[in-house]
Amino acid sequence: MNFQKKALLTVVAAGLFGSLQAVAQDAQSGVKDLEAGRYNKAIQTFQSLATSAPSADNYFYLGYAQLKSGNPDAAKQAFEKGAAADPKSQLNNVGLGAVALAKKDRATAKTLIDNALKETKNKNIDVLLRAGEAYTMFRKPEEGLNDPAEAIRILTIADERDKKNENAEIEMALGDAYTLKNDGGNAVSKYENALSIRPNDAEAKYKIGNTFLRAKNYAEAQKFYAEAIAADPEFAPTYEDLAEAYFGSRAYKNASKNMDLYIQKSQTTNIDKLLRSAQFDFLAGDFNKSIQKLDQLEGKVKNPVIQRIRGWALSGLGKYDEAIQALENFIKAAPDKVIYDDYKYLGRAYSQKGTPEGDSLAIMNLEKAAPQDTTENLYREIGKTLYTAKRYDRAATAYKKAIAVDTAKATTNDYFQLGMSNYLLGSRVGRDSTMMMGGDTAAIRQAKEKFYAAADSAFLKVNKVSPDWSPGYYFRASANYFSDTKGAMTTGEPVPMYEKYLEVSDKEIAADAAKKEANKRYMMTAYKFLSSYYANKNDAVKSKEYLTKAAELDPTDKDVQNALNPPAPQPAAKPAAKPAAKKQAGKATK
């Protein structure tokens, strides 16, 4: 934001001859501070100038700096003094119009600005420029009202008045207006026009970067911000938006570093900026630094957002009880400002308590965050917590949602955990008191088939996503076996799955011998099933083949050894000799 230097002549003329040079230097210093976003310093300079040389222009710049620093009430006082100092000068009336826009009073703003343009007959380029700027001043909707179409109308008149095309400020302001209209092409063209007038201008390069930032083209934005910094390392706004560009590309350490540079170079005391800096520190993993900044703000402001970032940072430090307290306080104090991240970090803090109540509150809060979180798939966390708590029904639902959120990025583990949740539900049917189906054997059978079929479907997906990972084959085979235990020996449905499991498992062991012990239990189950199946089919060769492999894997397994080497039959025991019949005692004679 470069300012017209012509206004400085008024400042100079207002001073005594002996102090002309000092006043002019002060004014130039104030303008440079405004350009660099050092609004507090600029306010001090123009406050001093307005006191020593109370001109309409000095009051205008003072009001402008106060308005840019977010203090419309102080700006209004300065503009009113400027208007009184020179009723013919319309700059301060435009400033008052900008104050009305800051207060979202469009009607008053239009009246003041239109009247200023009318009084100058649309001929004063400075008034036209500032009027156009007023309609593009507020970057965020909560800061005030913008009207880019009206800005373009007014600035086009100013551009036509600039016959020699010497005024880069008009091109910059037009670029701002097109940026607000999301017309990046025209915005960049106007900024490039400004560069043709003022080559290597840092502000123009910075604003070109902003068009790319708005389009979320973070790499291109960073490129232009780097050029702006090379052109003028003291132009503070560049560092703030470069930090945002790094934030957008998740380069949080660079975001934190550049936000610190912005604060240092702008000397800002704006609470929102300081809180944003603490947030970037948190994201960069520097939790202590984040909390130190928040401590410096404690008691100075009533913004409840301090508690939000404190809660996030405390969670990162593992101080979960304190994090929960801070986040609960924030949510209670500012329910309208709560975002999904607040529930996410609150849920994660609760999950660390290691209690059933903590798990329940963790899931409740994560479920509030999950639908809105586009950076992390929180349904995975929900599923993991539920699975650990043996809430397999809800875990299955969570993993289904995790897969549905972004199927293209669904992982092997997503499908495997979905399969295991259904697999374990199937194992509970008819055994768990909550899944007895009223003792109805037909209902029990149908429920088992339902859960094991869902498990089979998930494990099949595991096999497709990770064909060289053996557990997927093993549990798919087991799901098919337990779905119909008696029928499995007849149909042989699990056979190819167990055989594939053993094939893949052998490859895993060949690549890493340590996996032999890890796979041993499952391999023994597969060998025993296959041996029993082929024995049932009267294929003694195949049956013995699998028994032999089982014996090699675990020579201590008694069942396998007995099947391979059944004990010799014992000779039948001879029947015990019958005892001799007792002689009947003779009857007593009378």
UniProtKB/TrEMBL annotation:
- InterPro entries, alphabetically? TPR-like_helical_dom_sf (IPR011990), TPR_rpt (IPR019734)
Q: Where is this region: Disordered?
A: 552-590
Swiss-Prot/TrEMBL keywords: Signal, TPR repeat
The TPR repeats extend over: 56-89, 168-201, 202-235, 376-409, 524-557
Q: Does the keyword Signal apply?
A: yes
Signal peptide boundaries: 1-24
Composition bias, Basic residues: 580-590
Checking Gene3D superfamilies in the record gives:
Tetratricopeptide repeat domain
Entry protein name = Tetratricopeptide repeat protein
- The organism named in the record is Larkinella terrae
